[in-house]
């Protein structure tokens, strides 16, 4: 391009409103062209994948998405914050992937749950999402191939692990393809005809009731607390009942037309929940990964020590250990372990090889990128 054709540098400080809007129009034109070119590239990527593996092409690549979002955050110069910028790119990538192949994602419903919020955070808005009534039904939907991926909660920072999810992995061949972390804000909501001092029942998911226990003790000690399948289910019920309230997220209040009586009633201000993305694919190395395994050990003295020793010997950073009763009974246990690294990393492979020699069974649930957003 000749020098005289190059766009003149502009200094927004010296521009009036009309000039600033002209500049925004010009920049929007550039952004539009760039997004279109990016989408064309994604279509070409789909062609290349189809050519290489016509029957088994994998379009959604969590490791690549994590790298793209991490790079956006590293290169961002502001004034938009890193997370805001990454969310914009999250949606662009989501739209590009939908051009390649629209994804079907099952989640723990009904509509308006935190799990749906987590699904949107992870995949963006360009997927077909399908609410399922229970965690094991999310697993079944993905196992049956009706949806390619599923989203289920796995642990909460105040309430701990979601046992249903861990137990579902024991009898399933599904893998973990990703994780999402979500800050959870609980709100007390009711229909427009319900007065706060008349509330006699509070519905929510059992974990949400527990996460708001102190607030409920202090402000609604007389109201009966009723556990239901999900917070969105609680909101749906309250939609048709007087003198009842639900504890749920803002999405549920909008969906079921309820008024929020009190925002952020959770006892722990940094309350957050971790969700897993389940599917059938093995995810490649992103450079900042996590691995989850489930190990069953013989019930003998020192079993746990022998299980953990190889992690320390090979410098593998263990991030979580959960014990669950083994489905075979007899007071035996299985251990769910998360650690940093990917099964293709040498130290991880060595640690797992040693554990396999000592364990009754080792099942790798998946290596996947650490949550970026
Ligand atoms: O790089 C790929 O494999 C792509 O399909 C492109 C792309 C993107 O838009 O950047 C889209 C979907 C994938 O999940 C990852 C990245």
From TrEMBL:
UniProt cross-references to InterPro entries, sorted A to Z: ACT-like_dom_sf (IPR045865), ACT_dom (IPR002912), Chor_mutase/pphenate_deHydtase (IPR008242), Chorismate_II_sf (IPR036263), CM_dom_sf (IPR036979), CM_II_prokaryot (IPR002701), G/b/e-P-prot_chorismate_mutase (IPR010957), Preph_deHydtase (IPR001086)
Main location: cytoplasm
Domain of life: Bacteria
Domain Chorismate mutase residue range list: 11-104
Annotated site residue numbers, Essential for prephenate dehydratase activity: 273
Example of a GO biological process term: chorismate metabolic process
This protein's record includes keyword rRNA-binding: no
Protein name: Bifunctional chorismate mutase/prephenate dehydratase
């Amino acid at each position: 391009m000749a020098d005289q054709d190059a766009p003149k540098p502009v200094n927004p400080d010296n521009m009036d409103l009309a000039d600033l809007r002209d500049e925004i129009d010009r920049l929007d034109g550039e952004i539009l062209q760039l997004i279109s070119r990016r989408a064309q590239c994604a279509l070409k990527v789909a062609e290349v994948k189809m050519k290489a593996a016509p029957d088994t092409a994998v379009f959604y690549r969590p490791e690549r998405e994590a790298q793209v979002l991490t790079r956006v955050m590293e290169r961002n110069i502001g004034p938009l914050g890193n997370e805001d910028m990454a969310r914009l790119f999250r949606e662009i990538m989501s739209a590009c992937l939908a051009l390649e192949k629209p994804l079907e994602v099952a989640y723990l419903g009904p509509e308006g749950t935190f799990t749906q919020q987590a699904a949107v955070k992870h995949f963006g808005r360009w997927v077909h999402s399908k609410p399922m009534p229970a965690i094991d039904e999310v697993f079944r939907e993905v196992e049956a191939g009706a949806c390619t991926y599923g989203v289920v909660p796995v642990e909460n920072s105040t309430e701990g692990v979601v046992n249903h999810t861990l137990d579902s992995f024991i009898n399933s061949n599904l893998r973990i393809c990703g994780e999402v972390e979500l800050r959870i804000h609980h709100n007390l909501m009711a229909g427009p005809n319900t007065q706060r001092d008349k509330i006699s029942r509070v519905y929510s998911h059992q974990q949400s009731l527990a996460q708001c226990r102190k607030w409920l003790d202090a402000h609604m000690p007389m109201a009966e607390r009723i556990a239901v399948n999900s917070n969105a289910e609680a909101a749906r019920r309250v939609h048709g009942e007087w003198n009842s309230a639900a504890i749920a997220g803002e999405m549920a209040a909008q969906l079921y037309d309820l008024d929020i009586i009190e925002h952020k009633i959770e006892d722990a201000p940094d309350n957050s929940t971790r969700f897993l993305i389940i599917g059938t694919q093995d995810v490649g190395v992103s450079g900042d990964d996590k691995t989850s395994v489930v190990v069953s050990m013989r019930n003998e003295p020192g079993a746990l020590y022998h299980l953990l020793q190889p992690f320390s010997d090979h410098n593998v950073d263990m991030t979580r250990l959960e014990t669950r009763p083994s489905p075979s009974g007899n007071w035996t246990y299985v251990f769910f372990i998360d650690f940093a690294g990917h099964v293709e990393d040498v130290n991880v492979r060595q640690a797992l090889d040693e554990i396999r020699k000592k364990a009754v069974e080792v099942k790798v649930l998946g290596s996947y990128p650490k949550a970026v957003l």
